[in-house]
Amino acid sequence: MTDATGQPAPEAQLPSESATDTEVATVYSSGSVAVRRSPRYWRFLVIGAFVGIIAALVLTFAFPTSPDYSLTQVFGFLLLVCIVVFGAAALGIGLLIDRSMARRTRIVRADRVDVHPAGTPAADAEPTGPASAEPGESGPPNPPTAEGSGRS
Question: For FRET with 107, which of 5, 10, 43, 150 sits at 20 to 30 Å CA-CA?
C-alpha cells in the first residue's frame, strides 16, 4: 500500500525497519517457576447448570400435579434450586480435580527477556533473578556489554 507520493504507507513498514531507528535495552533473567494444569471452572459451572436444568425438567413431571401451583411455577422453583445445587456440585468436582492435579506440579527453569527502549526506567532496572551469563549453561545468550547499551 502506498500513499499519494508513492512512498510506502507507515502501517506497511516492517517491524525490523522501525526497530533499527531506536536503541533498545535488553534485560536477561532466569528463575524457577511451578507448572501445572488447572481445570476450567466456567466449563464445570456451565455443565453443572445444564445438568440442573435437565434435572428440574425431569423432577417437574416426576411429582403429581398440585392444585395450588402450576407446572410452570414448579419448574421455575426447581430450576432455581437445581441450577444452584448442581452448579455448586460441579464446581466442587472441579476443585477436587484441581487438587489431584496439584500433586503433579513440576518446577521448571524459565528464561525471561525484557526489551525496552533505551533510557526508560524499565530498561535501566537490573534483573530480579540470577542472570544466566555463565559459559556452558543453557539459557539466553550473554547480555550485551556496557559499550553497546550506552551505560557506563
Answer: 43
What grid cell was written down for 92?
Answer: 466442587
Region of 95 on the Ramachandran plot (φ > 0 left; ψ -120 to 50 alpha; else beta): alpha
- Full 3-state SS string of 61-77: HHCCCCCCCCHHHHHHH
Judge contact between 90 and 98, C-beta under 8 A: no
Cα atoms found within 13 Å of the Cα of residue 52, Cβ hemisphere only: 22
Residue with cell 507520493: 5
Question: Cβ(28)–Cβ(132) under 8 Å?
Answer: yes
The tens digit of pLDDT for each residue in 98-126 reads: 888 888 888 888 888 888 887 776 545 55
| This model's pTM is above 0.70 | no
Q: How big is the chain by its Cα radius of gyration, in Å? A: 30
Interatomic CA distance for residues 26 and 140, integer angstroms:
11
Q: How far is CA 70 from CA 56, 73, 79, 91, in A?
A: 14, 5, 14, 32
Q: E strands within 51-143? A: 106-117
